[in-house]
Structure to design on (298 residues):
């Protein structure tokens, strides 16, 4: 939520400066200056990076089965927001004053104080990045205390929160029925959540394969070679990607079957854990009492 609020403020402010750049006379004055750099990062960091970090913190417990450390998360958010404004707001002033971007030497001494403020902001941003790594390290160390096996630590709405954390290989034991908006949220409030299925069926899944990884890495290396005109690299990795696709097309045994008995055993074991867990109120969601069953808020 802190990142969401920061996103709204930063993105709206960046939109205002975008209006300036959309006005031809003003754009002519600040084009190719640090004003443009500040606007670009205003939109990129506020509109993209904050969302990426928010999603990472929100869905981390679903993917890995344990929550991230709240304290270090708040420190990281504070550093990212404060560092951004310290680093890039001075660039608006410098750009309006005529300082060109991609400048190797600065000749006007009036620019120096603003550049020093931006430098301090860069260090704060670096501290924000470091805080994320510290948060991850501490969270891995304390993962046993922060486990959320039931899978719904935030009283969420989406169907992905209706399975265990981390989810089983097949995700849903049975295909969920969606009859209204936020079906899982509705079922929680009407006593329909965490119920065993009437019957379980075999689940067909694709077998594990390295083809996707190989194609992705080969395509990235090919693109790198094309950008820098390293023709042997571009040709070699393009051929690797094509050969991998062709080889994959000849494979026939590409699926596996998870027996219904296995699916039922795993699902019922998780349901028993969910029914034994105690729901926690919003104030205790970041405590060790949160096993992945948030108290339903009406």
């Amino acid at each position: 939520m802190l990142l969401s609020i920061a996103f709204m403020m930063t993105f709206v402010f960046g939109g205002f400066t975008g209006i300036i750049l959309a006005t031809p006379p003003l754009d002519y004055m600040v084009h190719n200056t640090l004003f443009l750099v500040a606007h670009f990062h205003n939109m990129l960091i506020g509109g993209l990076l904050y969302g990426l970090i928010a999603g990472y913190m929100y869905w981390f417990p679903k993917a890995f089965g344990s929550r991230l450390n709240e304290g270090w998360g708040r420190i990281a958010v504070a550093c990212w927001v404060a560092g951004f404004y310290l680093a890039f707001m001075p660039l608006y002033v410098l750009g309006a004053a005529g300082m060109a971007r991609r400048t190797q030497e600065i000749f006007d001494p009036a620019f120096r104080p603003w550049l020093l403020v931006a430098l301090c902001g860069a260090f704060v941003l670096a501290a924000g990045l470091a805080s994320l790594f510290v948060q991850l390290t501490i969270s891995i160390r304390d993962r046993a205390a922060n486990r959320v096996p039931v899978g719904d630590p935030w009283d969420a709405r989406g169907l992905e929160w209706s399975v265990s954390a981390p989810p089983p290989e097949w995700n849903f034991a049975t295909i969920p029925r969606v009859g209204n908006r936020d079906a899982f949220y509705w079922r929680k409030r009407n006593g329909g959540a965490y119920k065993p299925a009437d019957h379980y069926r075999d689940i067909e899944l694709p077998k594990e394969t390295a083809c996707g990884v190989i194609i992705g890495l080969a395509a990235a290396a090919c693109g790198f070679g094309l950008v820098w005109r390293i023709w042997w690299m571009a040709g070699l990795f393009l051929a690797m990607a094509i050969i991998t696709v062709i080889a994959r097309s000849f494979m026939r045994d590409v699926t596996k079957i998870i027996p219904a008995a296995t699916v039922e055993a795993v699902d019922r074991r998780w349901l028993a854990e969910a029914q034994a867990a105690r729901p926690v109120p919003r104030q205790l969601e970041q405590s060790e009492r949160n096993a992945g069953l948030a108290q339903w808020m009406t």
Remarks:
- The chain has a mean pLDDT of 92.
- The longest helix spans residues 34-64.
- The beta strands are 203-206, 255-258.
